[in-house]
Amino acid sequence: MVYMMTVDLRSDTVTRPTPGMVEAMMSAKVGDDVFGEDETVNALEQKLADIFGMEAGMFCPSGTMTNQIAIKCFTQPLDELIADQTAHVYRYEGGGIAFNSAVSTRLLNGPRGIITAEMIEPEINAENIHYPHTSLVVLENTVNKGGGSCYKLDDIAPIAALCQTRGLKLHLDGARIFNALTYTGDSAKGYGELFDGISVCLSKGLGAPVGSVLLADKQTLKYARRIRKVMGGGMRQAGFLAAAGIYALDHHIERLKIDHSHAQILATELATLPWVSQVLPVETNIVLFDTLEPADIILQKLEAKGIKANNTDKHRIRFVLHLDVHAEQVEYTVGVLKAL
């Protein structure tokens, strides 16, 4: 009898709380967060603000909500934001830019989702009644559709300088920002010096079950809390969830390098296989690769062996490594890939 493992590589959102995290959640001190009285939520918000050198934070149920609130705070109806065409805020947030903020989007086509000041500057609209007013640039780090590609602070600094010169706000979708920091070695506080808003997700690589925090100055967050309420994001005894975020920040950042190592192992093996036509460069915990057969056929073969994954195109598959994928599961996956 051949032993079969279950390996879930669909996303780093599938992780379950560790025993230590559950214990922290169950012992959390809670209050009513809408009244600002949940001390664990307050502690999480301040902890992340301190890490990134920002004034304050606001805990929300999801990264989609923190991103959409930020866009609402940094724009007015009839404005336009600039982002890469792969951006999560554009592709995977349900059309929220248009629905929530009545803002249009100017899309750029950066290599693996990475855009530059030189690409952005000519797309900033002149003041003309025929054009939407350009008011915001949104970056994503790491870039999901870019296979976990990373900006370095040196890449971002010219963009921030351009935004300051031209009077634009700069927001970071930092869904996997700690993966980027682990890879680049950059300073988190350096991000706080460059961005007007930062969304930090706790429920991906960090392994918390729920939640993201929007970081900004206090005045912005005063308005952001109103938008959060309008969007139905005002939670009450949310400290049970915030405690998971605090635990993740204390215990799960350093281990991200393990996920990156596992991604490299899979990428190295995939590059040798005859049914794989291309493996994109791997920097963090995401592996994108192209297949000669349709991706759906490969995914069916993998699922028959207990391995779950997603496709991002007709011939492209994504593997995402996370804390619930251990070394023996990576080894098992390598064996399955070889045998396909």
UniProtKB/TrEMBL annotation:
Q: Where, per the database record, does this protein carry N6-(pyridoxal phosphate)lysine?
A: K204
An example GO BP is: L-threonine catabolic process
Which keywords does the record carry?
Answer: Lyase, Pyridoxal phosphate
Q: Kindly give the InterPro entries that the UniProt entry links to this protein.
A: ArAA_b-elim_lyase/Thr_aldolase (IPR001597), Low_specificity_L-TA-like (IPR023603), PyrdxlP-dep_Trfase (IPR015424), PyrdxlP-dep_Trfase_major (IPR015421), PyrdxlP-dep_Trfase_small (IPR015422)
Which CDD domains does the record cross-reference, listed alphabetically?
Answer: TA_like (cd06502)
Cofactor(s) needed by this chain: pyridoxal 5'-phosphate
| Region forming the signal peptide | none
For this chain, one GO molecular function annotation is: L-allo-threonine aldolase activity
Superkingdom of this protein's organism:
Bacteria
Show where the Aromatic amino acid beta-eliminating lyase/threonine aldolase domain sits: 8-289
A GO cellular component annotation here is: cytosol
Which family is it part of? Answer: Belongs to the threonine aldolase family.
Read off the NCBIfam families from this record. Answer: GntG_guanitoxin
Q: Which PANTHER family match?
A: L-THREONINE ALDOLASE, L-THREONINE ALDOLASE-RELATED
**What name appears for this protein in its UniProt entry?**
L-threonine aldolase
* Species classification: Bacteria, Pseudomonadati, Bacteroidota, Sphingobacteriia, Sphingobacteriales
